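[INFO] parsing input record for Dual-specificity RNA methyltransferase RlmN
[DEBUG] input buffer:
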Amino acid sequence: MTETTTRQNLLELDREGLELFFVDTLGEKRFRAHQVMKWIHHRHVTTFEEMTDLGKALRTKLEAHSEIRVPAIQFDKPSVDGTHKWLVGMDGSNAIETVFIPDKGRGTLCVSSQVGCALNCQFCSTATQGFNRNLSTAEIIGQVWIAARHLGNVPHRQRKLTNVVMMGMGEPLMNFDNVVRAMSVMRDDLGYGLANKRVTLSTAGMVPMIDRLGEESDVSLAVSLHAPNDELRTQLVPLNKKYPIAELMDACVRYALRKKGESVTFEYTLMKGVNDQPEHARELVALLRAFDRAVQMKDAAKINLIPFNPFPGTRYARPDDEVIRAFQKQLNSAGMIAPVRRTRGDDIDAACGQLKGQVADRTRRQAEFNKQLQAQGNADAAA
Ligand code: SF4
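[DEBUG] output buffer:
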């Protein structure tokens, strides 16, 4: 084994883990961990000799036991509309995409959690590539590090990166521990200092893990709904067979009640002739109104309408503009705010649902899907 593989990559650790590493492995004081965390995440430093407020002896010790290894950028492309995409290499044959989307007064980074995805949602570009593996904490927070350095982001001062959405490649709740640890660094003052509600985790509906997320983290929750009834949703999001809409909505109610006063966002990708008809809007209104009643809060459910972004080989299409407007109007008439997400980064394929990367598909998707759900079932039974 080479020295590199035995050294602790400090990007793997949140504040608690870094403190433990300093105390248990280095025999140092906790506050030294805080200094190093700031060097890494505020000043984007990757060598210990640059950490000038640490003594020479500590820097030598750090060098011997640890490293700061950021994933390699393979490709870096700005869009004419200010969107910026990075293709980030995770190992020899795999890469994921990270996208920064600036908007009025805010900058949102869309972060990936897995190389590929096993859930096989029928309208998703990532799903066509299969699944390889979970990303490590370092590979997840490394995406934020790369964007923050590029943007010259300084937490609490020059804040260009204001929001993170875990909506890139992968189902984040299937990589729970690594994602929660990375989100803890995003929200830590010694990390990226983002408020809880500015970090959003988006799930296709892993019901038991939504409950666990509610217990262990305070981030905003978004749910990829895409259909208002089980028959249609099971076609579009196969996970719905295991966790149907009623169970999913109950889990969302429990999450919202636990985070008093926080709304849950439901994402609805509009596909031509599939889920864009007046009856779908009616069902959707009924579903979300029931959610508001259960949470006992007006507008507890937020809805985002996302016109489908076609990609090569898909059988789905974007609805015509008037159909999108009519769908939105029907929701508005029922008293719901239903923004239609603008397509951004079209010229660099950075639009939602177009994150591609390069995935060395390790398994047959269905087998991997079943395996992950089986593991999930075992974890539930043990809980
Ligand atoms: S929509 Fe999300 S959960 Fe579904 S296949 Fe794509 S990346 Fe996976």
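[INFO] Residues 112 and 168 are 4 Å apart (CA to CA).
[INFO] shutting down worker
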